[in-house]
C-alpha cells in the first residue's frame, strides 16, 4: 500500500515526456489502456488496446523523474504474392536483406535496475523469459548502450508457446533480429545491427544475403523451399537501412504445421487462424506455378494438417484419455517455475505442474495445460449431443 | 400514403392474437423486430432478430380484424456423430423416418388474397419463388386446407441461390418436406403429410424409409455414401410423429461442394462457414472408421475443394477477367424479372441483367452478380499490396 503511494505516476511529467495532454494520460489509465505491472515491476506500464500513436505492447518505464519508452514490436505485414510485393514495396531501393523468420515467441530485452528483463509482445515481463535471457545476452552490451533495446526470438523445444525441434536447439535459445532505440523505436540498419550483435556474441537469426530487387523473388522462393523441407518458418525481407517497412513470407509446411497444432484443439482453433492459413496456400500455389502433381500434394498436405490431428483428438477422447498441451521449461532458480505459473494464472491460463527434476545445475519442470473446451465438446459429440 | 393509414396495424388486437402485451408489440415495431412488407404485401409483417417466442422469419398476416401466423422454419440441428446422436435424441421412439435433404433454398407457401405466395427463410415474399410456385402446387389444396402451410425446397439449375444439376431437374422444381399448421407451427406426422401431398400431386423429397433406431445409423451411412456419389446433400432424420425434433446429416461431397463454391469468392467466404465444414469432415472421418487410403482421399478432397477454386479465381483475375456469379432464371411473366431485381436491390444485392430470351411461353434471363470484394482483393495482391 505504502509502495503504491510513493510510486504513483506523475501524470504531468509522464504526459510531457510522451508529448500528450495530461488529460489524455489520465484517460488512458482510467480506460485501462495504460496499465501498471506488479511486484518488482511496479514502475513499468504497458499500453494496450489501441492507444493513439503507440504500438500495442509499448512499455513506459517510470524512473521517478525521468521516463523511458520501449516501443512495441511493429506488426510485419505479409506478402501473399512475393514478386509483386517486393516490386511494389521496395521500389525505392536497389536491394533487400533477407533474414530468417524463426518460429518461437518474440521478446524485447532491456536492463532494468541491474538485471536484464524480457517483455512479451503485449508488454508483460515474463518471468521465464527473463530468467532465461540472463544466460543468452552479455549484460555489458546494455551498460554500453543503455538507449538500445534488443528484439529477438525465443525458440527451441523447452518453450511454453511454440515447441520446435527444427532448429537443433536442445532447450531454448534467443536469436536477435532487431535492435532499436528506446523512445523512438528507430531501428539500427541491418548490417550495423548484425556487427554490433556479433561483437557481443549474441546469437542472431540467419542472414541469407542481400539480393537485388529483381532477383530477390526467385532467390527467396528457393530459400523458402529449403526452409520448408527443414520444418522452418520463413523469411523477413528488409530494407538494409531499415527505413522501409519489412515484409514477411512463410513456407507452406509452416502454415500446415500451425494448422496441425491448432486442430489438435479444434474447438479452440480460431476461425481467422484457419482462414488466413488457407488463403496463404492459395496464393502461394498460384505464384509458384505448380505442376498438377505438386498442387495435389499441397491440397493433401493442407487437408491432412486439419483432419489428422482432429481425428486423433476424437480417438483419444473416445478411448478415455483427455488431450492437453504438454511442454517442459528449464530454469536455474527453482522459484521461477512457480513465479511463471502464477504469471500465467493472472491471464486465466491454468497449468498443472508435473515432475520437477534437477538436471545439472538446472531444474526441468513438466507442465500440462488442459484444453477443456475441446475435451468437453468431443465428449458431448460422443454422447450424441447435436452441434447446434 | 392513404393506404398506409387505412391499413395501420391494430396493435391491441394483434397483441391479443399473439398473446403478448400491446407494449411489447409496439416495442417490437419500434426496434425493427417486427417489420412490414411493401406494395401488395403491405399487410404482411415479419419477425426478425430474435423476437421472444417467435422463430426468426415468422410472418404475421393482418386480415383487418383477424390475424394469422406463418411460423419460421425451425433450425434443424446437426448430428456430428450419427450413431450416438440417433441413440441420444430418439431414445423415446422405436423408429425414425429418413428423408432426403435437398440442396436448394427453402420456402413456405400459403394462399394470400387468391394467389399462392412464397416466403423465404427470412419471411420476405420472393417475387421469383412466388411466380414459380404457381406452377408447382395445386391451389385447391390451399382452399381445402386454409390453415396449413406447405414447406419445401426450391431446387434445380435455374436457381438464384444454389444451382444444382444433381437432381436431373431442367429448370427449377419444388419438393415438399413439411406441412405445418398456421399459428402454432405444429407439423403433420410424416406419413400423413406424404399421403396428403401425394393426393394433390405435389413433388416430395424422397423418403428412404422408416428404420429401427438400432439399425438406422448403418442404413443412413449407406444412404449417405450413395447420395455423396451423386453429388447430393444428405438426409433429415425425423420422428414419424413429428413430436421430437428432426436431425440433419450430410455427405462429405456436399461439404466439399459448398467449399468449392465459397472459395471461388474467397474474400467473401465466411470464416465460420469454412470452420464448420472442416469440423464435419473430422467427425465423419472418425465415425466411419476409414482406412488410411480413404482418409487420405478425404484430406485431398477437402484441401482441393478449398484451394482449386481459389487458385482459379486468382488466375482469372490475373488474366484480366473478373469473377462473378452467373445464373439463369425462367419466368412466365417478363415483369417478374424486374421485380426480382428490385427485390434484391433492397437487400443491397446488385445484379446485372444480361440477355432475356423467349423460350416457348417463358422468358429466360441471364443474371450476373459481381463479387467486388474478391476481385478487388485479388487485384490488390497482384499489384503487390500486402495482406495486413
Automatic annotation (TrEMBL), chains A, B:
The keyword DNA repair does not apply. Residues 95-250 form the RNA ligase domain. InterPro entries: Lig_Pab1020_C, RNA_ligase_dom_REL/Rnl2, RNA_ligase_Pab1020. It comes from Methanolobus sediminis. This is RNA ligase. Residues 262-385 form the RNA ligase Pab1020 C-terminal domain. Keywords: Ligase. GO terms for molecular function: ligase activity.
Amino acid at each position: 500500500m505504502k509502495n503504491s503511494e510513493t510510486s504513483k505516476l506523475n501524470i504531468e511529467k509522464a504526459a510531457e515526456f510522451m508529448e500528450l495532454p495530461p488529460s489524455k494520460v489520465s484517460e488512458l489509465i482510467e480506460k485501462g489502456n495504460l496499465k501498471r505491472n506488479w511486484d518488482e515491476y511496479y514502475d513499468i506500464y504497458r499500453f494496450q488496446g489501441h492507444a493513439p500513436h503507440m504500438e500495442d505492447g509499448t512499455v513506459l518505464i517510470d524512473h521517478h523523474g525521468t521516463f523511458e519508452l520501449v516501443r512495441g514490436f511493429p506488426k510485419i505485414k505479409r506478402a501473399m504474392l512475393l514478386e509483386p510485393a517486393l516490386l511494389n514495396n521496395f521500389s525505392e531501393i536497389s536491394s533487400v536483406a533477407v533474414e530468417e523468420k524463426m518460429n518461437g515467441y518474440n521478446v524485447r530485452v532491456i536492463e532494468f535496475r541491474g538485471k536484464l528483463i524480457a517483455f512479451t509482445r503485449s508488454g508483460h515481463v515474463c518471468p521465464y523469459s527473463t530468467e532465461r535471457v540472463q544466460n543468452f545476452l552479455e549484460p555489458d552490451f546494455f551498460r554500453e548502450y543503455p538507449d538500445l533495446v534488443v528484439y529477438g526470438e525465443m525458440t527451441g523445444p523447452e518453450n511454453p508457446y511454440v515447441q520446435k525441434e527444427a532448429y537443433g536447439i536442445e532447450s531454448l535459445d534467443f536469436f536477435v533480429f532487431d535492435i532499436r532505440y528506446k523512445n523512438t523505436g528507430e531501428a539500427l540498419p541491418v548490417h550495423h545491427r548484425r556487427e554490433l550483435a556479433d561483437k557481443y556474441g549474441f546469437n542472431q537469426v540467419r542472414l541469407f544475403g542481400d539480393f537485388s530487387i529483381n532477383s530477390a523473388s526467385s532467390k527467396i522462393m528457393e530459400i523458402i523451399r529449403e526452409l520448408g523441407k527443414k520444418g522452418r518458418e520463413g523469411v523477413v525481407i528488409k530494407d538494409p537501412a531499415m527505413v522501409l517497412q519489412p515484409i514477411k513470407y512463410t513456407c507452406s509446411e509452416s502454415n500446415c504445421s500451425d494448422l496441425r497444432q491448432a486442430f489438435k484443439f479444434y474447438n479452440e482453433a480460431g476461425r481467422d487462424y484457419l482462414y488466413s492459413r488457407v488463403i496463404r496456400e492459395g496464393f502461394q500455389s498460384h505464384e509458384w506455378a505448380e505442376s498438377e502433381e505438386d498442387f495435389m500434394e499441397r491440397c493433401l498436405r493442407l487437408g491432412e494438417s486439419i483432419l489428422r490431428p482432429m481425428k486423433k483428438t476424437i480417438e483419444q477422447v473416445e478411448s478415455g484419455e483427455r488431450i492437453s498441451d504438454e511442454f517442459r521449461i528449464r530454469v536455474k532458480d527453482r522459484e521461477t517455475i512457480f513465479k511463471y505459473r502464477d504469471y500465467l494464472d493472472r491471464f486465466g491460463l491454468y497449468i498443472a505442474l508435473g515432475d520437477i527434476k534437477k538436471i545439472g545445475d538446472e531444474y526441468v519442470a513438466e507442465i500440462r495445460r488442459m484444453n477443456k473446451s475441446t475435451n468437453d465438446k468431443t465428449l458431448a459429440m460422443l454422447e450424441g449431443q447435436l452441434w447446434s
